[in-house]
Amino acid sequence: MNNKFDFDKEINRRNTGSLKWDVPENELPLWVADMDFETAPAVRKALQKRVEHGVFGYSVLPDCWYQAYQDWWKKRHHLEIEKDWLIFCTGVIPALSTAVRKLTTPGEKILIQTPVYNIFFNSIINNGRFVVESPLSYENGRYTINWEDLETKLSDSQVSMMILCNPHNPVGNIWDADTLSRIGELCRKHHVVVFSDEIHCDLTAPGKEYIPFASVSDVCAAISVTAIAPTKAFNIAGLQTAAVMVPDPLLRHRMWRALNTDEVAEPNAFAVDVAVAAFEEGGEWLDALREYLQENKKAAVQFIQTEMPMITTGSLDVTYLMWLDCSQVTDDSEKLSVYLREKAGVYLSEGNIFGGNGAQFLRLNTATTRKNLMEGLRRFKKGIEGRCHEKES
User: Are 337 and 225 in contact (CB under 8 A)?
Assistant: First the structure.
């Protein structure tokens, strides 16, 4: 364990305008996907330097922004990105919503593999398109792709885009090269553009690596828009800094025009500096964070297996989010989540919102201090025991 960085430091986030912590005083929030840790020292230093300058006018993209992304993906993810492939955007979801609006037509269908990040539904429905779910198969605690179902739905001429979650939130799958290549071939065959959300890619477990969708074949590169960012890994989502990577010139031009006409392609005064600092100087901090998160997840698994054997845990390969199978306790995780908040004072995300078989799951955010996590797990146990007792009565 790297002791250079203190991830056990308690930081009071209440009354700071925090979405995660803007909950009743008695509740411990372990839900939305941001972390309770200070960001990397290099990022904080870059922010301080920028603030001290004192002038926050319009910003441009210097060469160092492009180079930071290129160097990071080459070193960390073995992908050579050409400078021209990169377009700045204010966030992964703004980029996704833009892609939905400008690369598809109202009334068309967009495919997602559920259970999946719930905001994908919003980006589709709010922009006048229809959701097509291709549910992942679930067996013995493991999710896989139902290839027959996927191809059947991609073959619908009204399906014009697939949103790929790589790695997959919330189920924790790191898709391998063969799987990604097969998805690419099916989408090419059926003339479907792939939008690949890869925001969790830097939060793999120590010793694990993810594979960029665009890296596995010329086909995957040619049909895809990939969203990447330092925001999830470095806990800077509120600073609105991201990029899309589009190797194909025609698709890239369409995406560039789309982002600009939606006015989400201009950096704020801090967006460039924090991204460059994270990618150029944040590697050691990130590796220490990944070790801490993995130990948190292991501690959670041990507690759940010992104290709540009716709950089962899924993959620990990526993200700080744990996908908990509560099927022995409930078939409605929304009601269970509300119960846990009211009776035990702990807030986990209900699985219903992620589609697929999510109604039997809760999502636990382990990106907090070990002390907070263990307290949250004790409250979780109390709530589950209360719920089971009520069902038996």
Answer: no
**The pLDDT of residue 3:** 74
The pLDDT of residue 349 is above 60: yes
Residue 11 CA to residue 37 CA, distance in Å, equals 8
C-alpha 10/C-alpha 28 separation (Å) is 14
Give the number of other Cβ atoms within 10 Å of residue 23's Cβ. Answer: 16
Collapse the DSSP code of 242 into the 3-class scheme (helix H, G, I; strand E, B; otherwise coil) and give the result: strand
Residue with tokens 């330092």: 230
- Is pLDDT of 387 > 90? no
Tell me the pLDDT tens digit for each residue of 94-138. Answer: 999 999 999 999 999 999 999 999 999 999 999 999 999 999 999
Tell me what pLDDT residue 388 has.
81
- Please give the Cα distance from 355 to 318 (Å, whole number): 20
User: Which residue type sits at 378?
Assistant: R
Distance CA 1, CA 298 (A): 14
One-letter amino acid of 379: R
CB atoms within 10 A of CB 365: 24
